[in-house]
Structures are given as structure tokens and as C-alpha cells.
Amino acid sequence: MTFPDRRWMKRYVGSVVAVLLSFVALPVFSQTSGDPTTSEVIKIDARAKGRPFPHYWEEMFGSGRAILSLRDSYRQDLQEVKRITGFKYVRFHAIFHDEVGLYDENPQGKPVYNFSYVDQIYDGLLENGVRPFVELSFMPRKLASADLPHSFWYKPNVAPPKDWNRWGDLIFEFTRHLVERYGIDEVAQWYFEVWNEPNIDFWAGEPKEASYDRLYDVTAHAIKRVSPRLHIGGPATAQAVWVDRFIKHCAESGTPVDFVSTHVYANDTSKNVFGTDEKIPRRDMVCRAVRKVHEQVHASALPNLPIFWTEYNASYMNEVNVTDSAFMGPWLANTIRECDGLADSLAYWTFSDVFEEQGVVKRPFYGGFGLIAAGHIPKATYNAFKLLHSLGTERLSVDSSSALVTRRSDSSLAISVWNYAEPDEAGAPRRVTLSLNGLTGKRRARIQIVDSMHGSALTAWESIGKPSFPTREQQKQLREAAQLQSPEVRALTQNSPAEISLILQPHALALIEIIK
Residues 6 or more apart from 436 whose CB is under 8 A from it? Predict the structure, then answer.
């Protein structure tokens, strides 16, 4: 996870609810009235040629450290996010942490390996239809050159190894065991990523970059000793740095590399990401960084390397009005729009608030990174991902910075539109009119909306006084408040163009499906 300048903050219902729930259950149309201060007409040609639109934003999610995956609460949330997105990979920290019990040394100082929890961790993922994106971290205490715990609550050791050959042996034995247990055809579909954010305080090697290159080299060669079919990459940096120099190092040294990975958060500073003093809005930071890295890779000696963003989010801090709120819908949709074609995968950090980097979660809404809050309460972001999953696999060009227009394999259209405002801005209602040409036969529109009053449990939680520990009945009611309402269905005229008009409240994300 990402820390600017030692980012310590990161990884930092009764009658009222009944009234609120009855309000949330009203039809979408009643919530799209008002006096908009802006309007936009989006012209769409349903017969226009599209281009491929892979769902790169829902291939992989991040999550808390490895040992948490043994919890029932973690697995329940994983199953739920898998259900709405179909995601294929999950990444977490600390598979080598001492709590997993993998590495020890006997009284004579020789390595002893115990794969009991490792097997349970990866068995659990695979049984739920998700593969691991294996982050190789952190340093087992008995293999560390020093006792250098990170500030996270679970105190991972960020020191280099005391013996580089022994580190290579650990990687080899770990990887060989995985291949023996799951088979090479399975493990060849996994990815192995060396460390986490070595450019900041997750790596204590000195000098940082040169010592990380050594760590990568030893690790990559050990992985490939097991099988050349296995995928290895890095540098897994914060703030989108080192990628160009990392590729240069691998190309010149001949060290194997199968992909590059890095991270960025929307409130990272331009100084940290670009080395400039400009003010980059939260809306644009992620995709400015994604474009930078895309250009670096394509200008490098290895221009065809896949690019995996193994962490990103709208904030690295715990901001309730950002990651817990309806703001995330428009922010996420716009990020998908801007980054399309520039990355092979964007891994949202994280799928669940079963997460303990700042300690045990103290309340359901604290600005956590997950799609699902403690108590299995879906957030507005969960519903945003659910709606965006319905987009098609072809993208049609439109002259709008607030829309994604897609076509599905059955020729139906799936359109997302939004009303973006910064999280600390009140914003204003906005009228959006879709003007559709090229439709044939009878069509209808199905409309669903996520905003502060639809599909956002945060609003319901605030209405009951923000309890830190909701009762079981309150949790149930909050989960009900988080549900998306049934789609509003409108018949379309057979005139050309057919029009659909709706008013979006600030921070609203809408999905409009045009179906026969």
C-alpha cells in the first residue's frame, strides 16, 4: 500500500432506518426529478463500429494480508465479490510472515519449511474460483538481517535477508511445493510478484533500488529454476516509479521478467509520481500515472510486457467521504474510461474490509478500502462494480467525458453515465439525455442508479447515529439499505433518434441497458 512521505495514515437501526429504507425503495424516476443546473445530450449510434473493451478493472482485487484469507468473514466477502464481478485473481501481502509458519530454522540453523497454512490459504482461494497473484513478502524473522518491523499493526519485517542464497532457497522450495501440490498447468496460470513497494518503507535494503534489483534477480532465477513456464515480475512500486529503470536492469542483466507491476492512488502527489509541482485532480491522477507507465514500457527494450497495476484506489488515507461513499461510482467509472487500453489489469485495493493494517476494525465505516464493510455490509462501491460489470465487450465512441457506451454480444447496449463531483463538493443535479440512432424494432430501457440515497449503506448508518458496533438487527437493516433497487423500465419510441432523459444527483452513477 502507498505512503507519501512515510504515509502513516494509509491502510489508516430502529425507526429512522425503517423510514430511510422505505425512501430508498421508491422508483428511480422519483429520485431523478429536480432542477438541474447543467445538462448534456449524448449522441449514440447503435450501429457504429466498436472496439474491444475487456473488463480489465475486474480481473483482480487486492486484499488484506495472507493469514486473513483463512477467516470465514474473508471468504464470505470474497464469494460475494466474485459473484458480482467474476474476478479471477486476488493479491495480498505477507505470505512469508511468521504467522503463516512457513519458515523456521532448527537448532543447528538449517531451514525448516512448513506448508500447512500456505496450503490452506491457496486451497481456499482455488475452491472459490480465484487464483493467487502471489506477492512474495515479507522477510521471515529468522531469515532477516535485522529486526526491522514495519509500522503496520501486524509488524511485517522489511529487512533484506541475512543470507541471499538462503532467500533463493526459500523461494525455490516454496515454488516447487506449489507446483507439486497444484500441478504446473495450474501454477503456470498464477503470477509471482517480488515484494511490495520497495521504494518506500516496505523495504529497508540500501541503496534501495540497487538492493531491490538484487532481491528481484535472486527471486526470479529461483522461480525459473522450478519451471520456465512460471510468471515473475516487479517492481511493485508505490507512486508509479522505477518501472523504466527496472526494465532496463532486467534487459541488460538478462534477468527473466514476464510482466511489470506498480501502484498509484488518486491522492498521491504530482511530486511523488511525476516529479513536478502541478496540482493534479483526484479525478485524473490514476490515469495520468497509468499513461506514464504505458509510455515507458512501450519505449523500453521490452515493449510488449504486460502492465499490471496491483494496487490503486481513490485514496490511500482513511476518508469516509471517499472510499465509503457514493463518490466512488463516478470516480471508478471515469477511471475505467480514461485508462482503457493503457493497462492489462487494474487491481482495486481492496475487495473487503476484513483488513488490519491499522489494527482491528473499530467501526463499519471508517474510510476502509474494501467494497464490503465489516459485518458484510456492501458499500456504494460494491454496487458501482456490480453495475459496471454489466457493460459490454465492445466500446462505442461518444463525445462525452461522463459516459461509457458499450455493446454486448447480443447487440444490446449497456451505457454508464455519471455526475462527478469531488468528495468535498456538494455538486448540483445534472440532466443527461441519451439520443439513440440506429435502433431497430421495439426496445426498452432498464435504468439503475447508485447515489447517496440508492445503494449506499453509509447514508443509513449516518441516519442512526454512526454506531461503532451496530446490533445484528441494525447490520441486517444496513445490508438491506445497501441493496440496489429493481430497475426502472421505460419503453422507447420507434422514432429516430429515440431519447432517454434522466437527472443525476451529485455522485450518481447510472446504468442504462437498451434491450429488445
Answer: 44, 46, 413, 492, 497, 498, 499, 500, 514
Q: Positive or negative CA dihedral for 139, 145, 151, 154? A: positive
Length of the chain: 516
pLDDT of 28 reads 40
The C-alpha atoms of residue 509 and residue 451 are separated, in whole angstroms, by 6
Cα–Cα distance, 350 to 90 (Å, whole number): 9
Residue 12: HSE in the Cβ half-sphere, 13 Å Cα cutoff: 14
Set 311, 394, 480, 488: catalytic member = 311
3-state secondary structure (DSSP) of residue 334: helix
**pLDDT tens digit sequence for 238-271:** 999 999 999 999 999 999 999 999 999 999 999 9
Q: What are phi and psi of 341, to 5 degrees?
A: 90, 0
In angstroms, the CA 397 to CA 57 distance is 19
Active site annotation includes 197? yes
Amino acid at 502: L
Nearest to 351 by CA among 1, 54, 60, 121: 60
In the structure grid, which three cell numbers stand for residue 440, read together? 431497430
Tell me the three cell numbers of residue 339: 485508462
Residue 497: phi, psi to the nearest 5? Answer: -85, 150
Beta strands of 60-130 (E only): which ranges?
A: 60-62, 89-92, 103-105, 111-113
Q: Among residues 193, 197, 209, 394, which one is catalytic? A: 197
Q: Is 311 known to be catalytic?
A: yes
Residues 411-420 pLDDT 10s: 999 999 999 9
* SS3 (DSSP) at 514: strand
State the DSSP string of 199-229.
Answer: TTTT---SSHHHHHHHHHHHHHHHHHHH-TT
